[in-house]
Amino acid sequence: MEWPPRQPAREYFATISACVHKLAALDWVIANDGEIWMLQREPDSKPAHPDPTASRAMGNVSRVEVAKTARDDLVERIGACGEFIAKIDAVLGNGVGEVLEHRYIDCWTWQRIADETGIPERSCYARRDYACDYIDNHKMLY
Q: How many domains does the chain fold into?
């Protein structure tokens, strides 16, 4: 799949937020040696270990390996988004990059962004909207 995908900016950033949440879940699986596989599988995906007679330990090892592979892809996507946000910030300035990074990579609430940055909450929304409109109008994700 091409990255970044061709989509409007708001969808792109929503996808990145989902990647960040999934990354946290994968980190949990890895840290717990695959003991609990808490991620939902896609409907057409295969189980982590297709052999139902395999030992529990083997299943856990397989889960950890699957989680590590998926994690690497997510880290790459999130890193690419961070670089993209830096480019947007270089063009637009005015704290746009900071707002985007805190919202979509750090997954902060709008209130926390306002409190931590000193930017009023409504201005945070406006900066996000301005950046997304700029990205879409200049076809930066196409």
A: 1
